[in-house]
Write a structure and sequence with these properties.
The chain has 286 residues and is mainly alpha-helical. The chain has 12 helices and no strands.
Length: 286
């Protein structure tokens, strides 16, 4: 017997965005391929502009006196035949990740968004819109104070020694500084996110405000160890301002929300148990 095909329209897609596991895996594969293609295009662009980008990246090192001890000019060393190729590739990849960030961030967003509610989508878009400028602001600040930090670290060289810094070591230092400063500027945004999901109440943050501000000053002194108050304040002051802005947002958000019935109880205090009122039997009361 020949099998009859069932006629009729195909079932509609799930309005809640649910799909089988294999469909999820196919979508993930496609979005990963698109993201990788965007990174490859960014890598090609980075390879083309690697020369001007390297001139900008090495400027903090060239502003220190140790960069001219060996040849009288700003110079960094490398060892190995293939080292120059991989260093150029590393610079190009850094540029490519930055250039292609809108594409691969969108692919992450498009893959995650079907599982989110409408309010969660709105919050996520707001966080993405703020996270990128905050990270860029921290990275720019790291670049401007990098020469002070380098000059202090190189001042520990012994008498009669010459600093011959390899290019890959210097690039690792630049990358670490950019990541530290960029991520530190994201912490206030993380506080707001934890407050929105109910993990971190504003009262807890305000209780430890002085300690947090003190730790920010300590962090600024450690990362910019030149002993100059201007360099330390250049990092600590923006972080404190962002922290206070995050606390204000948490305060305004909690103020708009209605207080719960047991909102005046502390975290370790149990809410009172109330027995439900007994229903009177109409037959017995009459």
């Amino acid at each position: 017997m020949a099998l009859l095909k069932r006629s009729g329209p195909k079932p509609d897609a799930d309005p809640e965005g649910r799909m089988p596991l294999m469909e999820h895996l196919r979508e993930l594969r496609n979005r990963v391929l698109v993201a990788l293609a965007a990174v490859v295009v960014g890598l090609i662009i980075g390879w083309i502009v690697s020369g001007p980008v390297w001139e900008v990246l090495k400027e903090p090192y060239c502003s220190t006196g140790a960069s001219r001890q060996l040849t009288g000019e700003c110079s960094l060393t490398f060892t190995g035949i293939f080292s120059s190729f991989f260093i150029t590739l590393k610079v190009s990849l850094m540029v490519g990740l930055v250039v292609s960030s809108p594409a691969w961030l969108y692919q992450i967003w498009a893959f995650v968004t079907p599982a989110l509610y409408r309010t969660e989508k709105r919050y996520t878009m707001a966080f993405l819109g703020l996270a990128i400028p905050l990270f860029a602001l921290g990275a720019a600040l790291a670049y401007f104070i990098m020469d002070t930090s380098l000059a202090f670290l190189l001042s520990f060289s012994l008498e009669g020694t010459v600093a011959t810094i390899a290019i890959d070591d210097y690039l690792d230092y630049v990358l670490i500084m950019v990541l530290i400063f960029g991520v530190s500027f994201e912490l206030p945004l993380l506080l707001v996110f934890l407050n929105i999901i109910g993990v971190l109440p504003r009262e807890t943050v305000s209780k430890h405000r002085r300690l947090i501000i003190f730790l920010m000053f300590v962090f600024g002194a450690v990362v910019t160890p030149g002993g100059e108050p201007i360099a330390m304040m250049a990092l600590a002051a923006p972080m404190i301002i962002l922290f206070l802005a995050a606390e204000l947002i948490m305060y305004l958000r909690e103020k708009r929300q209605p207080q719960s019935e047991f909102g005046d109880l502390s975290d370790d205090e149990a809410s009172p148990l109330e027995e439900p009122p007994l229903e009177e039997d109409s037959d017995t009361t009459r």
